[in-house]
């Protein structure tokens, strides 16, 4: 029988990113045996705690409101440019940090459909993240639009062929996730974008399960819009701000619907009427969340140092290893794979399915193994390349296998 524990040890020793694991906080009194939910909330970095303390005692305490004109007012754009460079394949002036994913999704989707007057259809898939579906349902009701649904396999995701069958001369916008939240399926961003553009439609990508774990090439894809959170693989912390991408092709004519003072051309004149700011700054509405951007800066430091291609390589190795364990320990006991088996079509999480898996989350958490559950029957094994070790995967999967075997009838 394969010695999976020894294999994990050897993989950890050969891991070129192993030093990054020591840069994350793991308190000595923590009960966590294996954290397998980095695709929902990333671990905090040690430097984040130091950076927060230094900021509170330094710029905030010493400069007070002068900090806004020192540099804070520019942070949505400067941090946005850095996200674009490090994680998105996006040139400067196209990414802005603001709001939540939901709010930015609404802003950019509304702007997109307004930019395609006379077209009444929005194409999306049935297994996209709930927020994406709900926001688009709301926009369709506001604008008297028609939603065209693509039925996607919950164990896979959207394909260019499916999009080609759904789009047409009445399509204003298509909205998909680059990595499917349930299955981890990795869509072909370039191909899907090209198909939508051939029909004259615009494309908005949800990158929440992509950014920081797989390469994204928005400029190369000729994408139109994108949104994402920053609290997963970028380790921005609970509720950290989201970002939006607007291709420079669309910036001059963009009219997003939430007109706030910070997105006005000359915010501090406080004048009558709304005139949008130049460039991607017009996506802003209210006051930027400066304190909440600090952890994100640390996450970007680490990602830039590691390099997204090295991160992707480890992501594929981690999920391959998890699949080997599942094949040996779980699939013979009624568990099925709810993710693509091919690494090139898989993001950084693996979904395993069995009818009783909802009953196992509490026992797993009580034993310090922290995956998450997605109804009706899926446990997601989320593996963050910078903070997750192969030995951690071994420990977590061992406990899951023990619980599965205990609940599997003999014979």
TrEMBL record:
Residue positions binding pyridoxal 5'-phosphate: 101-102, 129-132, 206, 209, 231, 261, 287
Enzyme Commission designation: 3.7.1.3
The family database entries (Gene3D superfamilies) matched by this protein are listed as: Aspartate Aminotransferase, domain 1, Type I PLP-dependent aspartate aminotransferase-like (Major domain)
Residues where N6-(pyridoxal phosphate)lysine occurs? 232
Keyword field: Hydrolase, Pyridine nucleotide biosynthesis, Pyridoxal phosphate
Q: Which Pfam families match?
A: KYNU_C (PF22580)
Q: Look up the record and name the cofactor or cofactors this protein needs.
A: pyridoxal 5'-phosphate
Q: Does the entry feature the keyword Cell division, yes or no?
A: no
What binding partners and quaternary form does the record give? Answer: Homodimer.
Q: What is this protein called?
A: Kynureninase
- Species name: Saccharopolyspora erythraea (strain ATCC 11635 / DSM 40517 / JCM 4748 / NBRC 13426 / NCIMB 8594 / NRRL 2338)
| High-level lineage | Bacteria, Bacillati, Actinomycetota, Actinomycetes, Pseudonocardiales
């Amino acid at each position: 029988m394969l010695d999976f524990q020894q294999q994990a040890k050897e993989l950890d020793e050969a891991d070129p990113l192993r030093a990054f694991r020591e840069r994350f906080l793991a308190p000595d009194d923590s009960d966590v045996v294996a954290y397998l939910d980095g695709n929902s909330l990333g671990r905090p970095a040690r430097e984040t705690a130091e950076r927060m303390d230094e900021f509170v005692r330094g710029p905030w305490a010493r400069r007070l409101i002068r900090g806004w004109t020192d540099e804070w007012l520019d942070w949505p754009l400067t941090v946005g440019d850095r996200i674009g460079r490090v994680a998105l394949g996006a040139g400067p002036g196209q990414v802005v940090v603001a709001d939540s994913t939901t709010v930015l999704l609404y802003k950019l989707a509304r702007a997109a459909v307004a930019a395609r007057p006379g077209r009444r259809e929005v194409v999306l898939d049935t297994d996209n993240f709930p927020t994406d579906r709900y926001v688009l349902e709301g926009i369709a009701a506001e604008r008297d639009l028609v939603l065209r649904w693509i039925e996607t396999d919950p164990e896979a995701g959207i394909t260019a062929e499916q999009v080609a069958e759904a789009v047409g001369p009445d399509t204003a916008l298509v909205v998909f996730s680059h990595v499917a939240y349930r299955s981890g399926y990795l869509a072909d961003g370039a191909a899907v974008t090209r198909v939508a553009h051939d029909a004259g439609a615009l494309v908005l990508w949800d990158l929440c399960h992509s950014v920081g774990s797989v390469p994204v090439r928005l400029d190369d894809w000729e994408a139109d819009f994108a949104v994402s959170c920053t609290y997963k693989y970028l380790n921005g912390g609970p509720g950290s701000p989201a970002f939006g991408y607007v291709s420079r092709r669309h910036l001059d004519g963009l009219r997003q619907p939430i007109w706030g003072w910070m997105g006005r051309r000359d915010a501090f004149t406080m004048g009558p009427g709304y005139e949008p700011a130049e460039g991607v700054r017009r996506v802003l509405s209210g006051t930027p969340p400066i304190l909440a951007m600090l952890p994100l800066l640390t996450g970007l430091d680490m990602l830039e140092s590691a390099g997204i291609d090295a991160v992707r390589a480890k992501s594929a190795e981690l999920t391959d290893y998890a699949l080997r364990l599942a094949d040996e320990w779980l699939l013979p006991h009624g568990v099925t794979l709810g993710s693509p088996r091919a690494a090139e079509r898989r993001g950084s999480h693996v979904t395993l399915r069995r009818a009783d898996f909802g009953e196992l989350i509490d026992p797993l958490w009580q034993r310090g193994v922290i995956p998450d559950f997605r109804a009706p029957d899926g446990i997601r094994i989320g593996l963050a390349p910078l903070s997750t070790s192969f030995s951690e995967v071994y420990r977590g999967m061992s406990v899951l296998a023990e619980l599965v075997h205990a609940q599997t009838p003999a014979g």
